[in-house]
Amino acid sequence: MAGKSNAVLFIHGLWLHPTSWSAWQEAFEEAGYETAAPGWPGDQDTVELARANPDSVANQGIDDVVEHYGSIISQMDCPPVLIGHSFGGMIAEKLLGMGVAAGAVAIDAAQIKGVLPLPLSALRSTLPVFKNPANKHRSVMLTAREFHYSFGNALSQEESDTLYDRWVVPAPGKPLFEAAAANFSPHSPAKVDTENESRGPLLLIMGGEDHTVPEVITKSTAKQYRHSTAVTDVTEFKDRGHSLTIDAGWLEVAEACLSWLESHDL
Q1: How many whole angstroms separate alpha carbon 57 and alpha carbon 54?
Q2: Domain spanning 8-263: which CATH class is it, in words?
Q3: Distance between CA atoms of 228 and 249, rounded to whole angstroms?
Q4: Is 233 within 8 Å of 261 (Cβ atoms)?
Q5: Closest among 98, 94, 131 to 113, alpha carbons compared
Q6: Helix, strand, coil proportions of the chain in percent (round to 5)?
Q7: Do the beta carbons of residue 197 and residue 230 sit within 8 Å?
Q8: How sure is the predictor about 2, in pLDDT bands with cuts at 50, 70 and 90?
């Protein structure tokens, strides 16, 4: 099979290890893409090492992560397509707005500056971080119960617990504090250049049952792009929660991404 012109760079979000993209990488490579799924600054090579070294990711903020991936992109032969989940989706949006990516898919992306809705389920999902202000400079690990509410609420308890054991790692609290304060800060790191008309296409994907990033947040995010003539598409998976990239239905989401990339010659 002839290779695609653009590589695909996967960006994970909070609490998932970068190897959680492994099945996606296989699917995209079978479709002809070169892929990579580098971790955030401080990420360990395995889930076990990440759990044993929680301080390695502490105090990493949005700008740190953007700079990290920007450096990786600068060493690539051509601008990649970015596929990000949760805070990885926000990072993908920022990098796309900066003009360093060919296109991007933001799946259940964390809210950017300008997005105002804050549903109760989203507040409850982030409570493990916000319950202690000191967590801004620490890493935080979810319990299996917390993961089931925030990620696995559309799944059986058994599947949620299996995903928790396989992929969940400590995450820095700082990005959540930064996003929460975004609309009160003129220079927030959660600000995205949504008016860039020369950027590549963007697909926003939302899960209709998502507790962490409810669909109202994604719909509000889409409105932030209304002043740009660049392509911004929105797709919803009505019965899916925040786990939609790693649960048993991941392939349906991946195939939707592949079809969208094909439709835009990416």
Answers
A1: 6
A2: alpha beta
A3: 33
A4: no
A5: 94
A6: 45, 15, 45
A7: yes
A8: low
Pair of tokens at residue 47: 């889930």
Distance CA 163, CA 11 (A): 18
Select from 127, 95, 128, 94 the least CA-distant residue to 111. Answer: 94
* Structure confidence by residue, pLDDT tens digits, 118-167: 788 888 899 899 999 999 999 999 999 999 999 999 999 999 999 999 99
Number of Cβ within a 10 Å radius of residue 170: 22
State the burial class of residue 186 (Cβ atoms within 10 Å of its Cβ: 0-12, 13-18, 19+): exposed
What are the sequence ranges of the domains in the chain? 8-263
Per-position DSSP letters for 187-203, written without gaps between them: T-TT---TT-SSS--EE
